[in-house]
Amino acid sequence: MPPVTGRTYLAIPGPSVIPERVLNAMHRVSPNIYQGDIIDITHRALDGLKQLAGTRHHVAIYIANGHGGWEAAITNMFSRGDKALGVGTGLFGVNWARTAQSMGVEIELLDFGRTAADPARIEAALRADTERKIKWVTLTQVDTASSVRNDVAAVRASIDAAGHPALLAVDAIASLGCDELRMDDWGIDLIVGASQKGLMLPPGLALLWLSDKALEAARIADLATPYWSVLPRIGADEYWRLFGGTPPTQHIYGLDEVLKMILVEEGLEDTWARHRVLARAIWTAFDAWGAGGSGIALNVRDPGARGHSVTAATIPGGGAGRLRAWLEQEAGVTLGIGLGMAMSHEPQYADYLRIGHMGHVNAHMVMGVLGTMEAGMCALGIPHGAGAVEAAARALSAA
Ligand SMILES: *Cc1c(COP(=O)(O)O)cnc(C)c1O
């Protein structure tokens, strides 16, 4: 291969590719934070964030990554000793529940491994809670480790079918702006998001949406601390109170640009549709590579349970690890490690990888990843079925 020149491509599930126009929008000196256009821009961004999540209720911005967002959620949901049903469909769902547990919440973990949540089992677990101790069900919409996508509306329906008063909290960090998400229509009480995935921004903003019921829960949650409490942030007029201190000014400029791109220019539904088309092209390639007993396989068998922003897959015999190294060194493409598929010290860790296809992605980026992956498989002698790149091209052409 010729040496790596040209633009590199970080095809991991966050941080994602930041559009040049977003970088440019952020490339400004810090404004007067007490008055002027930054205040108007912030309020416009808050409105846009509500539109993005499909809610007319409440939203708050924290300066944190996704893990900080988890804690923001937990502190506003619970008092010490409260109980929750944690639904696990991969490492992230389990870790969110474990984080709550470490903060004093009693967790009943319903772990589906690396497959989608079964609403019938959630309903059964809630029916078994005859004393109605479970306050919240926590769910990951798309688990970035397994690439499982859960049917959020079906989980809500299972709570209702059990006649249980539990509220529903959803981690949409990996799916926000990529996969269909309708907070109010689907009866979600709380959503956690972050800036560095489908929102195409640098890490640094954690986002929290709350229903009226969730806000009521926040008023009595004794885990809340001065910074993480949502109460001063919601409906606050004073700009610094919205942010619990110095506002993240450059991130706000970037967020305003991103929301314009998604909500005004492309349109939210078309943004979701683009992610579906590109994801299907990737899945089609993997199906072709997996033919003939190569052992290459997508983690999620059921296409209806796959996230459209990230794809986790197996390339056995250490193939995934070798391929990742080849792509980075020879082709300037960085793929994600196989997080949570095996412990990092186990040799089979090298059998898994993930491709991030969230946010600022298009057909040529996806075809570039698939084409260079195929080149790497050839160069490394990794067994694979033929015709994957052509199959992906046909999938795109038919979309
Ligand atoms: C990335 C991610 C997180 C963690 O976010 P960080 O910014 O890495 O702390 C949590 N949940 C999901 C679903 C994610 O994709």
List the helices and strands and how they pair.
Layout: E1 9-11, H1 20-26, H2 37-53, E2 58-64, H3 66-77, E3 83-88, H4 91-102, E4 106-111, H5 119-128, E5 134-140, E6 142-143, E7 148-149, H6 152-161, E8 167-171, E9 190-194, E10 204-210, H7 212-220, H8 239-243, H9 249-266, H10 268-289, E11 297-298, E12 310-314, H11 319-331, E13 333-337, E14 352-356, H12 363-380, H13 388-398
Parallel strand pairs: 1-13, 3-4, 3-5, 5-8, 8-9
Antiparallel strand pairs: 2-10, 6-7, 9-10, 11-12, 12-14, 13-14
The structure holds pyridoxal-5'-phosphate.
The CATH homologous superfamily name of the largest domain equals Type I PLP-dependent aspartate aminotransferase-like (Major domain)
Order of strands in the sheet with most strands: 2-10-9-8-5-3-4
Indicate the overall shape.
globular
Find the count of extended strands (DSSP E, 2+ residues): 14
CATH architecture of the largest domain: 3-Layer(aba) Sandwich
Strand content: 15-25%
Secondary-structure element series: EHHEHEHEHEEEHEEEHHHHEEHEEHH
CATH top level assignment of the largest domain:
Alpha Beta
Ligands (ions, cofactors included): pyridoxal-5'-phosphate
Low-confidence parts: none
How many domains comprise the coordinates?
Answer: 2
Task: Return the average pLDDT rounded to an integer.
Answer: 96
What would you call the structural class? alpha/beta
Helix count equals 13
Q: What fraction, in percent, of the residue positions are helical?
A: 40-55%
Radius of gyration: 21 Å
Please give the largest β-sheet.
7 strands, mixed
- The end-to-end span amounts to 32 Å
- The name of the CATH topology of the largest domain is Aspartate Aminotransferase, domain 2
